[in-house]
Each structure stands twice: as structure tokens, then as C-alpha cells.
Design brief:
The complex is a heterodimer. By secondary structure, chain A is mainly α. Helix content of chain A is 80%, strand content 0%. In chain A, helix 3 crosses helix 4 and helix 6 packs across helix 8. Chain B is mostly helical. In chain B, helix 3 packs across helix 8. Chain B is globular. Chain B starts with a helix and ends with a helix. Classes of the chains: A mainly alpha, B mainly alpha. Chains A and B meet through helix 4 and helix 5 of A and helix 1, helix 2, helix 5, helix 6 and helix 9 of B.
């Protein structure tokens, strides 16, 4: 047998060492393996080495951790259990408490509202003089507007005087004979109704024009002044102290 | 539930710690891993299939070891080694006393130097004697994959020069005695 074929056969046998040691090599394969090892010194040496390691591995100590570690684990598990129990109880208690004093508790539990009031308070502290100044100015402007605005509530003077039918004896003599006095009276009443209607339309138009061209521009100017004042204050704050 | 948990610790602690101890150099790290695994067992207790408790524990241990090794690689190795030395010097357990046997020490080192999953499979099967079914379940492999990895792991161990040297020493001293 050539050297290379021997090496190949040894390699193939040595691949079966583990299977042999596991007791899984059977039949002809087992016989071939045992026969080869009996004749081949190198493979016999390799089998002894593998068997020695196999036994050494079986003798390797099995590790274990200390009882203190076990106690620690038990403590962790019991702590978590207690925490869960406490959380459950707290939850139940909280629900009960909410039922009794819900609104009050909710009021005290909302720090965001406290923050809002604090901010509002700070705003008034910072801006009080400015606010008073603008309030006075606004009041003045509104008063001027009211004075200048057309008096809608007061009874206005009719733009066209109503015609009062005066059917005295003199006037009646002036009426041509072709017109009946009763017809003239009816015509005058219709005329008065028309004049009254025209007067009303005129007053409404006057009010609309006043609001459109006097009141609204004044309001807009006041609002824009207030807005400019508030923006200028923020810019100062953002810029910081000089 | 707590009593059952304690029973599970008693039943499986050795297997979990052994797998960790043969995978990591520091006994303290292995104990930390084992503790972490049992804490996870407690946290996941209601969700676990308790008929497959051991495979679950071994899988979690295996993953925890991989995570630990990965984390350690990112840290400064010299600091880690110093911690290992201190931890090992501080601990005079029976485990380490047995490691003082030269062949056992070399064997333990060689096992630790195996890559995963060769190491885990070797420790589970040859060191701990677990069934193939448990190993398959814990590592999510089929039987043939486990056997192939196991045989390769054994061959890798036999190829370890330190181990071979120890064996030759023992062999020659035995021949001398004869």
C-alpha cells in the first residue's frame, strides 16, 4: 500500500474516532475501524489521546454558584412580588381616593396650572405699568370714538320734513274742484309714509358709513398700537440686559 | 410561583453556571451571567413553556454569553484582564482547585478558546451530558447540525497543541514508569 493511500485511510479512520467513542459505529464500519487501529500505531495513539481527553472531559468539574447568589435571586423575586403587590394596592387605593375627593385631588395634581398662574402673575408684575398706560390710552380713544360716532339712539332729525295735511277752510278753497278733499288727504298720507321710509334708509346708511370709515379704522389703529407695544417688550426681553 | 422558581434554580443552576464558567475566563462574570439568566427566568415566568425550561435557560445563557463577549470586545482588554486576574485570585473555589491539575487547566482553556457554537455544544453535550434534543431546542438547530458541530469541536480540541503536549507528557511518564 502506498504512503499516500495509507495517509488517506488513516485520515478516514481518525474521522470516525468520535463516532466510535460515542458507541455509534456499528457493523462492518466498526470492524474495519478496530482492525485498522490494531495495525496502525499512529491511529492507535490518536485513539488513546482522544479517549484520554474524553475521560478528562467527563471528569471536568461542574460549576455551581454560591448559596448567597441563590438567596440574592430569591430576594429579588420576593422584592418584585412585593413591588407588584404594592403597586396593585396603590392603584386600588388611588381609584378609591379619586372617587371621594376627585376634583380636589385633580386640582392639586395639576402642576401645569400652577405654572400658568405663576406665568400670568409674572406677566402682570413685569408689564403692569405698560398695561395701565395702554388701558388709559385705549379708554381715551374709545371715549373719543363714542363722542364722534353718530348718535343712533337719539331721535334724528328727519332729513325731509313730513307734510302735515292741513285741510283748513282756506286751504280747502285752494284745492281745485276737480280733486276731492278725501283723495288729497290720502295722497298726503302716502307721501308722509314715503318720506318716513326715506328718512329711515338715510339714518341706516349714515350709521353704516360711520362704522366703516370712523369706528373701524380707530379700532384697528388702537389694536395695532397695542400689538406693537407687546412685540417691542418681547424684543427687549429676548435681547437681554444691555 | 416563588417556590416553583426556587425549585427551578435548584434544578438548573449547575447547568447554567457550568455553561457560563466554561465560556468565560472570570468566575465572577460567569456568576453574573447566571444571575442575569435566572432573573430573566423570573421576569418571563408566566410566558415560559415550563416543560422546556432547561432548553429555555440554556438558550438565554448562550445568548447572554455571546452578548457579554461582544461587549467585552468593545472594552479595554487590559482592564478586563486585570479584573479577571483579581476575580480569579480572590476566588478559591473547588472549581479552581481542580483547574490546578495541568491537563484540566489546559482542557478548560482550550474549551474557552473554541468559537461559538462549537464551545456551547461541546460543553452542553460532553461536559454536562445533555441530550441532543435539549441542545437542539436551546440552540435552534437540527440533530445533524449539532452532531457536526460537536465532532468538529472535538477535533479542534484534539488539535490544540497545549493539550497534546500535556497528553504526551503523561504518556511518556507512564511509559517510563512501565
Amino acid at each position: 500500500m502506498s504512503q499516500s493511500s495509507e495517509q488517506t485511510q488513516c485520515y478516514a479512520m481518525q474521522l470516525q474516532i468520535d463516532t466510535f467513542l460515542d458507541g455509534e459505529l456499528e457493523g462492518e464500519r466498526q470492524l474495519a475501524f478496530v482492525g485498522h487501529v490494531a495495525e496502525c500505531g499512529d491511529c492507535a495513539h490518536e485513539l488513546r489521546y482522544a479517549q484520554h481527553l474524553y475521560e478528562s472531559v467527563l471528569d471536568l468539574p461542574k460549576a455551581d454558584f454560591s448559596d448567597a447568589l441563590v438567596d440574592n435571586l430569591v430576594a429579588i423575586s420576593s422584592q418584585k412580588r412585593v413591588h407588584q403587590h404594592e403597586r396593585h394596592e396603590r392603584h386600588e387605593g388611588h381609584e378609591e381616593h379619586r372617587g371621594k375627593t376627585g376634583a380636589l385631588a385633580e386640582t392639586f395634581r395639576q402642576p401645569s396650572r400652577v405654572g400658568f398662574f405663576a406665568q400670568l402673575d409674572q406677566f402682570f408684575r413685569d408689564r403692569l405699568p405698560l398695561t395701565i398706560g395702554f388701558a388709559a390710552l385705549s379708554t381715551l380713544v374709545i371715549a373719543v370714538v363714542i363722542v364722534m360716532a353718530p348718535r343712533v339712539d337719539n331721535a334724528p332729525q328727519p332729513l325731509v320734513a313730513e307734510v302735515t295735511p292741513d285741510l283748513s277752510a282756506e286751504n280747502a278753497a285752494m284745492i281745485p274742484a276737480a280733486f276731492d278733499a278725501a283723495e288729497v288727504r290720502m295722497a298726503l298720507e302716502e307721501l308722509n309714509t314715503a318720506i318716513d321710509y326715506l328718512n329711515r334708509v338715510s339714518r341706516q346708511t349714515e350709521t353704516m358709513i360711520g362704522e366703516r370709515f370712523v369706528v373701524l379704522p380707530l379700532q384697528q389703529s388702537v389694536n395695532s398700537s397695542l400689538r406693537r407695544a407687546s412685540f417691542s417688550g418681547n424684543e427687549d426681553r429676548q435681547a437681554g440686559p444691555i | 410561583m416563588q417556590i416553583e422558581f426556587q425549585q427551578a434554580i435548584e434544578k438548573h443552576r449547575q447547568r447554567v453556571v457550568t455553561l457560563a464558567r466554561y465560556s468565560l475566563r472570570s468566575a465572577a462574570d460567569a456568576d453574573d451571567i447566571a444571575q442575569e439568566v435566572f432573573v430573566k427566568l423570573w421576569q418571563h415566568w408566566p410566558k415560559i413553556d415550563h416543560d422546556k425550561q432547561l432548553p429555555w435557560l440554556l438558550r438565554v445563557t448562550h445568548n447572554a454569553i455571546i452578548d457579554f463577549v461582544r461587549r467585552r470586545k468593545t472594552r479595554n482588554e487590559s482592564i478586563d484582564d486585570a479584573v479577571d486576574v483579581e476575580a480569579q485570585a480572590a476566588e478559591q473555589s473547588q472549581f479552581e482547585a481542580l483547574e490546578n491539575n495541568q491537563l484540566t487547566a489546559s482542557l478548560t482553556d482550550a474549551i474557552r478558546q473554541l468559537d461559538d457554537p462549537f464551545r456551547s455544544i461541546f460543553v452542553m453535550r460532553d461536559v454536562q451530558g445533555l441530550s441532543y434534543a435539549d441542545i437542539e431546542e436551546s440552540l435552534d438547530m437540527n440533530a445533524s447540525q449539532v452532531k457536526v458541530y460537536l465532532h468538529r469541536a472535538r477535533r479542534k480540541l484534539r488539535a490544540d497543541p497545549q493539550l497534546r503536549l500535556r497528553f504526551e507528557e503523561i504518556n511518556s511518564s507512564g511509559d517510563d514508569a512501565v
